UniProtKB/TrEMBL annotation:
GO terms for cellular component: plasma membrane. This is Regulatory inactivation of DnaA Hda protein. The lineage of its organism: Bacteria, Pseudomonadati, Pseudomonadota, Alphaproteobacteria, Rhodospirillales. Residues 172-224 form the Hda lid domain. GO terms for molecular function: DNA replication origin binding. Gene3D superfamilies: 1.10.8.60, P-loop containing nucleotide triphosphate hydrolases. It comes from the Bacteria.
Length: 233
């Protein structure tokens, strides 16, 4: 008798919606959204959005990039000789995890020159970080003073309503329908972050495809337990 192989989901990928119309505004991020809406009339060349991992900083930066065509770089990519080219076309730059460049002399000099060039040319920098610039280990005094003086806005982790809306959106991106009971259960038991929501939805989708069944609360409980959550009220 021939064994039937386990049903394995094919990794075909999906297309998550990342446009401005899909961004969900709530109390945890509304101040940051208001600052992005204020562009290009910012009172300084730079804006710093900070908050814990998974709070949605990357999506906020993506919204701004869609408006400005700004390149997105890591602090390690900042070089003094490359500064003029960064602001050459878009006159806007996104720097992710900007605090990681603090303490590196070359990166600090490049960011200092980039800030000054943005101020002189009417350009803008959007920096994301987990903490405000006052807590960065910046050694270059002139850069430190500029970063501390830059407008900063905090983004918090999603509340229940936003987390539920995020889950519904992520399932819709995958064209997966789930009941409100599943959403309520997940919101109550999961880690409260955008990143956790993305991982969880992907895992639930894969588990449901492998089992050839719809996503239910028992399935959600098993996936949560596998990820280290108790799955109990």
């Amino acid at each position: 008798m021939t064994e039937t192989p386990a049903q394995l989901p094919l990794d075909l990928g999906h297309r998550p919606a990342m446009g401005e119309d899909d961004f969900l505004v709530a109390s945890s991020n509304e101040a940051a959204v208001a600052w992005l809406d204020l562009w290009p009339n910012w009172p300084a060349p730079a804006l710093v959005i900070f908050g814990p991992a998974g709070c949605g900083k990357t999506h906020l930066a993506q919204v701004w990039r869609a408006r400005t065509n700004a390149p997105r770089i890591a602090p390690s990519d900042l070089k003094v000789e490359a500064v003029p080219d960064l602001l050459d076309k878009a006159r806007a730059v996104v720097i992710d995890n900007a605090e990681h460049g603090a303490g590196n002399a070359e990166t600090e000099r490049a960011l200092f020159h980039l800030y000054n060039l943005a101020r002189e040319s009417g350009g803008h920098l959007l920096l994301t970080a987990e903490t405000a610039p006052a807590h960065w280990n910046i050694r270059l005094p002139d850069l430190r003073s500029r970063m501390i003086a830059a407008p900063t806005v905090a983004v918090g982790l999603p509340d229940d309503a936003l987390l539920a809306a995020i889950l519904v959106k992520l399932f819709m991106d995958r064209q997966v329908r789930v009941g409100t009971d599943v959403i309520r259960f997940l919101v109550t038991h999961m880690e409260r972050s955008f990143d956790a929501a993305r991982r969880l939805v992907a895992d639930l989708d894969a588990a449901a495809l492998a089992a050839r069944r719809r996503i239910t609360v028992p399935l959600a409980r098993r996936v949560l337990e596998r990820e280290g959550f108790s799955g109990t009220p």
